[in-house]
Write a structure and sequence with these properties.
Two copies of one chain form a homodimer.
Chain A (H helix, E strand, L loop, with lengths): L2 H17 L2 H17 L1 H17 L4 H7 L3 H15 L8 E6 L5 E8 L2 E5 L4 H13 L3 E5 L5 H17 L7 E3 L4 H10 L6 E4 L3 H10 L12 E5 L5 H13 L8 E7 H18 L2 E4 L1 H6 L3 E2 L2 H4 L7 E7 L2 H11 L4 E5 L3 H10 L4 E6 L16 E3 L7 E3 L5 E12 L3
């Protein structure tokens, strides 16, 4: 089969999934959750092939870990699918509606996109996640999961396709183009009219390639150079746990803190209070010259301000005032998440108004920018673009809308 | 000044407009409406230069007409700006909000995109329209209006820029790159990070170029091969006026009817009832072979089904059943507007569910797919894509959103 045939088959399979009611989609998801468990040995066998190849190719320990599926992790994948069953169906949700003066009834309702494409790297859990989210939102999905996980993804998709066929849907509704390597990804980016929206997930490099090369509309899920500004009125008893939580609770993810900005009037007190917690958490501070005068730290260079560490490193800059903090954020932020710690309502309001990011916070940990924490129940990714979806994306963000217009013979005057 | 400087200046000017309150923006719009009127002679002078050039270059009568500004039309532009003053400000509108179990208050509010780009052709009214809509929604705008209207647009933008400066905003907030010709358009399509969203308005050719070449996110405003299906249960007394209104009320626009699909059981009755109205309206029917057996008409070829006439031509096809109608629509529709005329609730529901278009109608004229008719008060265009906006776009569609997250020391467990 050619890539184009796969894409066309996915498009043809999409309407039936789009029209399926919630009960039918949930029954399909239940089949998939069960099939993942009953096929776990087969999945692990395929995964072993990928792991052996990855080891031979010198993949890093971190990548090998993300690639690995165990009985326990497969159980986790099945549980994630079952959690999606419990979520409300976004399809058919009324977004807006009104009756016009002439009696025409307008209703804007959510409808599936049609075919969702996802390009990602070496994380077999994304295969199951995106397939389940696509099914629940009535979409077909075409997946390109990276050559490192090719054998694992092949088995996962074949398990899902068996369930689709068993539930009376076309198997092609969830397809992979992994076997075509990079050509598969290129074909997806060219597939105007076949793929309705493309979501890249993975490294900044992968995302940039897709965003700039794709002719299909893309939802950009970007990296996070996340800032936290401690103003002069901040409450130190709140500040220390928020900073440590923002940085250290899970440093490898996009909503973790990278740069701490501190008002000069509170810098000495704050940094003194922070030191024990920083040492305790194993955080390495990269400090500006003023920070260097107050605490032991690695001298920060300009490159630090533009770095998403994704590790227990933290750059710290002392600023003269809020203007300087906002300028720094405006220059270096990736528009993901920014937080202010303040007891001043005026400063909080100014920060909320002026910072142009997907999530802007007052007195909370930056780790809260998360679909699960927002109550979405599942997360497709975190959008850092401004079109269609911004911030954590749940099932609703995998839908478009349609205007239903009901009349009784009206014509336009 | 280079194109890049213009784009950078627009980006720098955007935040002040984004933060301006409704009163400030409305005062600016009132200044612009007045200035259009007081500068009407200057505008008409520049317009005469464009018209003379257009005549020399052999522009069609239609294009010359769209290019022409008269005192009356300038008065119309000023009135349109004043109507935008009266519309609600979309910025700050609460989209969703909730308080999480941990006490964090989440609010998703509308915020301006930042910089909106518009690429269009030889319609100076779009210059004023987009500028006013951008200002009301807190956005800066960069405009590329086509060489045919270059002198007119230059004066219009300079009038608007004087008003911006007079109201304390940076003049660069509304800018044109017309002087750079095609290079200006190319620079806009490359301007990731400077332009947040690009809206092409004009010919199918222009839109296709922008959609496939742009590296900036695009909202596609497409053409309409609009279908109307008359099923066997349709009420002929409603059907005739709806069909004539859909086709003939304003045939040159995207929501006018192009293809009439008729169930075979009602074909003879319907076409007989239609003939006098068709003759009266001056409509030319391009009929399928079965239509040719019933009425005098031009034989339709396959090309007719794929043609947006934008004239008093109408293709007519007799179908055996609703399946055939839906298949025809699925094959030839541009996903703009489709309508069914029926008295059967089952057929209406099936049509509303299965037709995948921005607007799907029952028993109304297709001409109702319109921002004004929907009560939006102003229309940026009609989106035929599925991301961000679908169907008529008002001020809300010129905004993104931002999550405001207010806490009191919460950290993630």
């Amino acid at each position: 089969m050619s890539v184009t045939t796969i894409l066309q088959s996915a498009k043809q399979a999409a309407p039936a999934l789009g029209r399926a009611n919630t009960k039918q989609k949930n029954e399909l998801l239940a089949l998939i959750a069960d099939a993942l468990e009953t096929n776990s040995n087969r999945i692990i066998e395929a995964n072993q092939v990928d792991l052996a190849k990855g080891t031979a190719n010198g993949l890093t320990k971190g990548l090998l870990d993300r690639l690995t599926l165990t009985q326990e992790r497969i159980q986790g994948l099945a549980s994630a699918v079952r959690e999606i069953i419990a979520l409300p169906d976004p399809v058919g949700e009324l977004v807006r509606g009104r009756t016009l003066a002439n009696g025409i009834r307008l209703a804007q309702v959510r409808v599936p996109f049609g075919v969702v494409g996802c390009i990602y790297e070496a994380r077999p859990n994304v295969t199951v996640d995106i397939a389940a989210l696509a099914i629940k939102s009535g979409n077909a999905a075409v997946l390109r999961g990276g050559s490192a996980a090719e054998q694992t993804n092949k088995v996962l998709v074949s398990v899902i396709q068996s369930c689709l066929a068993g539930a009376g849907f076309e198997a092609a509704a969830i397809s992979t183009v992994d076997e075509y390597g990079r050509d598969g990804a290129v074909a997806m980016m060219q597939a105007r009219g076949l793929i309705d929206v493309l979501i890249p997930r993975g490294s900044a490099n992968l995302i940039q390639t897709v965003v700039t090369e794709s002719k299909v509309p893309v939802i950009e899920t970007g990296d996070g150079i996340v800032h936290l500004f401690v103003d002069e009125s901040a409450d130190l008893e709140k500040a220390v746990p928020i900073i440590i939580n923002s940085k250290a609770q899970r440093p490898s993810v996009c909503n973790s803190l990278e740069t701490l900005l501190v008002h000069e009037a509170i810098a000495q007190d704050l940094l003194e209070s922070l030191i024990p917690a920083i040492l305790d958490a194993g955080i390495t501070v990269h400090g500006c010259w003023r920070t260097q005068e107050l605490i032991d730290c690695v001298p920060a260079t300009d490159a630090d301000w533009a770095t998403e560490y994704l590790s227990l490193d933290l750059s710290v800059k002392i600023v003269a005032n809020m203007d300087e903090a906002l300028e720094h954020i405006s220059r270096y932020s990736t528009h993901h998440t920014e937080s202010i710690l303040t007891e001043s309502i005026a400063n909080a309001d100014r920060f909320l108004l002026e910072v142009d990011s997907a999530a802007v916070m007052v007195n909370t940990s930056t780790r809260f920018t998360d679909g699960g924490e927002f109550g979405f129940g599942a997360e497709v990714g975190i959008s850092t673009q401004k079109m269609h979806a911004r911030g954590p994306m749940g099932l609703a963000e995998l839908t478009s809308t349609k205007w239903l217009i009901r009349g009784d013979g009206q014509i336009r005057g």
